[in-house]
Amino acid sequence: MMDVAGKTAFVTGAASGIGLGIATALAQAGAKVMLCDIEQEALDAAVAALKKSNADVEGVIADVSLKAQLQAAADATIARYGRVHILVNNAGVGGGGGYGEWTDASWDWVIGVNLMSVVWGIEIFGPLIESHGEGGQIVNTASMAGLVAAVAPGYNATKYGVVALSEGLRMALAPRGIGVSVLCPGWVRTRILESERNVPDRYAGLERPLAKDDDPFRAMVETAIKEGVDPLYVGELVCEAIENDWPYIFTDAMFEAGVDMRFAAIKAGFDRIRDRVPRR
Ligand SMILES: NC(=O)c1ccc[n+]([C@@H]2O[C@H](COP(=O)([O-])OP(=O)(O)OC[C@H]3O[C@@H](n4cnc5c(N)ncnc54)[C@H](O)[C@@H]3O)[C@@H](O)[C@H]2O)c1
């Protein structure tokens, strides 16, 4: 069991929503936290608010979909705190577009922020965590959309990728003293539906990444998010998960039946061919 008090954490997408909830909960539990985000104003406000409670926190700007910027943020963290124990790859965007709407740019954006930043986070911070020999934890934010695919194909594909990465690396990193947890939130009250605010300039022209205003899916998601779980509660769960090395972190059981249905469909696929003799 790891005590987060006194440890150093690096949290991406920490200026808003779930990332801010995680950074706040870690700081309240006595961890030093480097908050990383693409949005300067929101980051400054988050760091200033946390500092008022005497938390040992700092902020660093990075577009995590650019490896060099994530590396620079890691360098700044080591310069400030000396070592890192906890990496939270949380930054993410709701986007990608549906069938008939997606573009190369919308795929590049959602894959870059939601998936490649996690790959690079692990690549950059894994050796830093290993190097001090005190052990640590990596938490990757996926989604329930990483376990049950719904109507946003780009988003789902990246979140399934984050679940797969986390499950595989959990086995590979355990002998190196690093636990890996995957956070699969249900609906959480955040600004995810305003992800367009963070489309980098290089994807100029990328509009309405998730769904159009008149799309019934958007209206349903808007209501679900407005009535969603408190991000600070999610942060507190993540602290508990880090201390106890939970493999999966869920925020409520709303999607459990959907996961059961998916596993039942997979099982039915095996049942269909079980008695056949494969041609070799
Ligand atoms: N809100 C939900 O219901 C929900 C459900 C499942 C999963 N998630 C996941 O939770 C994570 C956090 O999202 P949220 O809901 O808190 O949304 P949010 O929009 O409130 O917060 C996302 C944060 O990520 C930052 N960000 C966006 N692009 C970035 C980039 N390129 N580089 C660095 N930072 C960047 C934003 O500035 C913002 O501070 C995401 O990975 C999201 O997919 C959210």
What this model shows, in words?
The protein has helices at 17-28, 40-51, 67-81, 104-131, 153-173, 216-226, 231-244, 256-273, and strands at residues 8-12, 32-37, 57-61, 86-89, 136-141, 178-184, 248-250. By secondary structure, it is of the alpha/beta class. It has one domain (8-255): 3-Layer(aba) Sandwich (Rossmann fold), CATH 3.40.50. The protein has a seven-stranded parallel β-sheet, with helices on both faces. α1 (17-28) crosses α7 (231-244) and α3 (67-81) runs parallel beside α4. The longest helix is centred in the middle third of the chain and has 28 residues, at 104-131. It starts with 7 loop residues before the first strand and ends in a 7-residue tail after the last helix. The mean pLDDT is 95. Nicotinamide-adenine-dinucleotide binds at residues 12-13, 15-19, 37-39, 42, 62-65, 90-93, 113, 141, 143, 185, 187-188, 190-192, 195, 198, 225, 228. The site of nicotinamide-adenine-dinucleotide has 32 residues, from α1.
Task: Provide a brief overview of the structure.
The chain is α/β, with parallel strands linked by helices and 280 residues long. The protein has helices at 17-28, 40-51, 67-81, 104-131, 153-173, 216-226, 231-244, 256-273, and strands spanning 8-12, 32-37, 57-61, 86-89, 136-141, 178-184, 248-250. It is built from 8 helices and 7 strands, in the order βαβαβαβαβαβααβα.
